[in-house]
Amino acid sequence: MCVQEEPGGIEHHLATELAQEIRIGVLLGPPRPNQKPVLQLFDGFGSTLAFAKVGVTPLAAELLAQETAALRLVTGVRRRTFEAPQVLSSESWRDLPVLVQRALPLAQLRLPPKEPPVTVIAEIAGVAGIAIGPLGASSLGAPVPVADRWFGLDLQPFERLRQRLSTRPSCPLGSWHGDFSPWNMASDGSTTQVWDWERFEQRVPVGLDAAHYRIQHAVASLQEHSIAWQLVTRDVGNVLTACGQAEQHADVVAGTYLMMICRRYVGDAVEGPTPELRRRISWLAGLSAVAAAALEKGKT
User: Fold this and answer.
1) 190 lies in which domain range?
2) What residues pair up with 25 in beta bridges, in sequence order?
3) Which of 190, 208, 230, 292 could join 176 via S-S bond, C-beta 3.0 to 4.6 A?
């Protein structure tokens, strides 16, 4: 499909920002709460130059601001284990924020690591320092109560988990990518490139990225809950060890992740869950029941 350039249009704006002629393609995917258009920018030979994200909703605009700040932070420090996109532009177009970031070469090849890359997760966790602190001092805040039901979904297991976590309030706090999943990274064996930093946060329990990576695999296959819990706490423990922290915090970190992801899903889906989200939350509720029981026994 050929799109004719419009004076003052998005293609003209992006060409001006990059100081060269470009062509754009629109990346399509399933409906998501943030409703954020992603544009792929090509040069005249068809090579990918960059990606642009447009904040067309309040949530999308907030996420773009977070990603811009995150990329400037992580690309502004020396990194040993991973690469992140460089911000090329973060201006506005027709009063909408537009983030343009350089394309990462491996992103086009889709080479996700087979296992969570512990050294990468550990380096991200420590990018702004690590310190032991109360869970309530994290940017996530102390786990808060959730409704018993939401659009017919039983959320009581998350509340029981919150009660168990309230008895184990302290853990190492650092940073996390926020959506550290196989589709947001690629590795060729020597280099790991990570993109989509819009959920990056600081002052969160160390190891959340490991929990997210493992659980995204587990929920896709509806893995048996007790096996999933063992694998998640093992991966989180490996990250804690790599960061020089005690792996005994792994169950608290993994449990906190379940509370956090539930709040994210419920908070973003203001019009209610899609069938896929309903399936995810139902499975996560089952895992939360296992997590609460494990925390009550004081073992993972």
Assistant:
1) 118-297
2) 40
3) 208
